[in-house]
Specification:
By secondary structure, the chain is α+β, with helices and mostly antiparallel strands. The chain is about 20% helix and about 25% strand. It contains 6 helices and 19 strands. A 5-stranded antiparallel beta sheet has the order 6-7-14-10-11. A 4-stranded mixed beta sheet has the order 1-2-5-3. A hairpin with a 2-residue loop joins strand 16 and strand 17. The chain is globular, with a radius of gyration of 19 Å. Bound molecules: flavin-adenine dinucleotide. The site of flavin-adenine dinucleotide (FAD) has 33 residues, from strand 3, helix 3, strand 8 and strand 15.
Length: about 260
């Protein structure tokens, strides 16, 4: 296979990110494993709120878009999108990837965030990850709900595999997403506090459906911060900070942001 070199390209973040906010920026496309400390690694931007003063970004290129199966392990390059891995699992009758159907992102972003749906989280199925320092076993990493302690760029994720793709499970996950707003968002704005629901707290402080400029907390799902047209970083930040203040005042709970602001 021909391998590509690193290169730069312009990305319009107001089109690239799911929230549709951000400037046009030159981004480094990484095709070679190495150390890129001056760059912030970026995935597909499904969990991102980008300002005009964001840092320098890098994304992973074509060289990391492979899926290889060896014995009972699956080696997946981190620029592979969730949908591509799901299709692979379906075509090869593999189990446990069904939950990726409606989880937008690439394997790097999904792993860093330990993305998931209810008790199905990506770390459940991970064997190890590969960084510039080689493979690191899952046991040597810290991870929890929507969190991992991975600081380096993840180039590859190795999954345990088992036979048995389930159409029923895929359907179940699809149905779970039916009530989600279709307006541009970055998924959940806040993490659910322990034994609580961020959406319920936002609703109880009167912010469900609340608009500021072109941004609002969705009237369909209060924990989704949505861009109704030409929303800006500043409007989004205003609403995030407002929700945090109101929830703290009323319930003495600190809402933790799931969305990452740059
Ligand atoms: C409509 C919608 C619904 C969603 N529903 C859910 C849901 O149900 N559950 C859920 O968990 N999430 C959900 N999300 C959020 C999103 O799917 C996840 O956060 C996903 O992990 C983002 O992946 P990404 O590639 O877009 O990452 P980005 O948003 O680009 O980046 C996220 C983080 O990953 C880091 N990162 C990216 N690539 C790498 C890499 N190669 N190595 C190291 N770090 C890296 C970035 O630095 C950043 O910290 C939803 C988003 C949307 C828009």
């Amino acid at each position: 296979m021909e391998t590509k070199k690193n290169f730069f390209k312009d990305i319009d973040f107001s089109k690239y990110t799911s929230l549709k906010i951000g400037p046009i920026r030159e981004v480094l496309v990484i095709n070679e494993i190495g150390s890129y400390e001056e760059y912030k690694i970026f995935g597909l931007g499904n969990n991102a709120l980008i300002s005009n003063t964001a840092p320098k970004f890098a994304i992973l290129g074509q060289n990391f878009s492979y899926i290889k199966q060896i014995d009972n392990l699956l080696y997946v390059g981190c620029s592979v999108k969730s949908g591509k891995l799901l299709s692979y699992a379906k075509n090869n009758n593999l189990k446990n990837m069904e939950f990726l159907g409606k989880l937008p992102g690439n394997i790097g972003g999904l792993t860093k965030m330990n993305a998931g749906l209810k008790e199905w989280e990506i770390f459940n199925y991970i064997h190890s990850i590969k960084t510039k320092d080689g493979y690191i076993k899952k046991e040597d990493l810290e991870y929890s709900y929507r969190h991992s302690n991975i600081k380096d760029i993840i180039y590859e994720v190795v999954f345990h595999i088992e036979e048995g793709y389930s159409k029923e499970q895929a359907e179940l996950f699809k149905n779970m997403r039916d009530n989600q707003p279709q307006t541009p968002s970055a998924g959940s704005c806040f993490k659910n506090p322990e034994n609580n629901s961020a959406g319920r707290l936002i609703e109880e402080v009167g912010l469900k459906g609340f608009e500021y400029g072109d941004m609002s907390f969705s009237s369909k799902h209060a924990n989704f911060l949505v861009n109704n047209n030409k929303g800006t970083y500043e409007e989004a930040r205003y609403l995030i900070d407002l929700a945090k203040t109101k929830v703290k005042e009323k319930f003495n709970i600190n809402l933790e942001e799931e969305i990452i602001s740059y």
